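Example (one chain per record):
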Amino acid sequence: MLTRKGTFQSGRKDLKVLLHFFIPYALLLIGFLSVGYYAYERTLQLIESQTKETAFTVMEQTKDILDRRFEEIETIAEQVAGGTKARSFQYVEEPFAGTNPVRILELHKDLFDYPLFNHFILDYFVVYPDSEMIVSPNAMYKLRQFYDLKFRYEGQTYESWVGALADRYRSKAFLQGQIVTYEGKRHSVVTYLRSFGAKDHPALVLFLIDNAQIQNMLRRLSSSEGGFAFIQDEHGQTISRSGVVGDTSWSEDIRDGFSVADIDGRRMLVTRSTSNYNGWTYVSAQPEAAVLEKVQYLRRLLSTILALGLLAGMAAALLFAYRNSRPLWMLLRTLPTAGRTAGSESAAPARNAWDEIRSSVTNLVHRNGDLEEKLELQMPLLRSGFYDRLLRGYYASNQDIAVAMEHARVSWEGEFHAVGLLEISGYDGGYNEEMLRELDIRKLGVRDVLAKSYGRTIAAHDLSENQIALLMNGDADSAAAFMDKLRRILGELHERFADELHVAAHVAVGGCYRQLTDISRSFEEARLLMQRESWSNERAIVFQDDASPAMPTYFYPPDVELRLVNLVASGNVAETEALLAHIRDNNLERQSLPAAVGRILLGELSGTLLKCIGETGFGLDSRREEIDRALLAVETGKHPKAAFDEIAGAFLTICRVQNDRKKSHNLQLKDDLIRYIEENYHRTDLSLGKLAEHTQTSEAYISYFFKEQTGVNFSDYLERLRMTHARTLLEGSDAPVNEIAVAVGYYSLNTFSRAFKRANGLSATEYRKARKP
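Predicted structure:
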């Protein structure tokens, strides 16, 4: 403020101006002193109150999130420890004798790769001290090999680590965060141990929890300089911490809530909360001086105003400067720090506010251009990732695919879709550098021909060294006509590949579908067709309908199982029902499976059902009889179709429960968003980003969700709300239009005026005149 005052003081000062402002100055000075003192006291009380509320709210949110994470880990540990294969192996003392290696492999395959879907978990292992074996979803080790190559605590020997594992039987235990070497890299982890089995033959489930994620959440509680936060278990052991934490014994005498304490000679504002789930204590402390920095700022401001009051002629000038420069201040707060262009550390400081704004806007333009260039360079990777997830069936609905397509800048206009798998002949493995280079050149030529000739009809995606997926779309009178069109196109391309590129290839084409979610189905059909067919020059292009009879086997690949689990977890009943019908059609309608093969299929489906129960947290109490009947369907000797229908019914039951949960969550989220907007519509920085930060989701999801739930865009809804309040203020008060604009959340009068006239058909001044007598 002093800098702006100096700017206004650059004008001529004469005696007439000083005399003109002298008399009102005395009255204004008394008013400034009274208002300043009152504002100081009120602000101090308000900041202290808001600090308590904000700190405790953030603490409760962090505690709830971490409680859910730790509960998930304990649930997963119970599932792993409860596995039949995991329990039976604890009695093995010689793991490589007899059939024990087979049991190790079966146990390894039975472990689900939870870290793939839960990034809170760095890795987990099942440890058998008696047999000196350790097994994970990704590998199997002897204890010594595991400690030397895979994982070790810094500063701890192998012997002390093994002794600690066998020290006692743990029902469950969390070990405080410490530095470890994992896969050759240093990590900070919190270790969770759970013993299972007989005490004379103990086994352990060992989880490595990413302590960095816990510490990131704790930093939210200790954002001030010199602050810290920590978590202690029910025994007083520090599990994780953020900031410099010394002796924590003082926290035992502090009650839950907000309090003030002297810690290491510093006066700290302390927030404490105890978890109802596990009895752990969450504590954060921030220096009182840092938290009350705004109060100190007001004290300095009051002193400055008193000093400025000594100059009678400058009081009015300071008032006008404040009122006229307020929009400029708001603009400067919105823009990033200016005064220097990007990459110029020695640039001269801005001479005035307008120079600062111009420099900042120029900097934003340059940064935006750089980001656009970087995004364009990353677009092939984004598009490749989209194709990969689409082919593997990772998307739960057509809406999810449409959003991902827009993000990856992919546009398909056709009604029908099919996937072909092109394999370059003559490369069956054993690649060397020269062969790989030759394959890259040939694939580049194939992609170039596809892009130039059928770029809008066929999209190419690399799958392996000699395989390319062809995602084909287009319009036709019927699915059969579309497939006939593809036969002609692929025949022409096959000849061009041979004549122009000297590339011999064969193509397997899956079925034709209308739904985008069925593209993964077409891809799987093409993949199976590629494996089953015997290829020759005369039979180089084969469609699903042309396929030769295959050996009796069931259709249930890992990609289909993963898609089924994802659909059930997302509560998509229609897609789940369609996928189950597809599995039934491929296994029980189109072919007659041998009884033994059918039992294997039903057994795998039962295993998938158990995974769905674990993924969704579905309670068996309400549907115990139905779920038990489905899980035992393969053992009851029922006809395969009847047993399949029971298992499918259980999948759909869980899916419907998830759908109901999702609808309930959506209603709560919608009410929360509407309430947040109505409470904060007057904030000029209210945006999708603020909503995303409030709900801890992404801007893209909030935008899509808000439009889906309310029927209008967020910006239109916010403008209507602001206009409603603006009309009320115009009718019921005599406040200036520029103050009303600020009160309803606009940066400037010009922006408000344009929005008001666009929404109401006349200006704010005209509206006030028309509404008042």
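Caption: The first strand starts at residue 121 and ends at 128.
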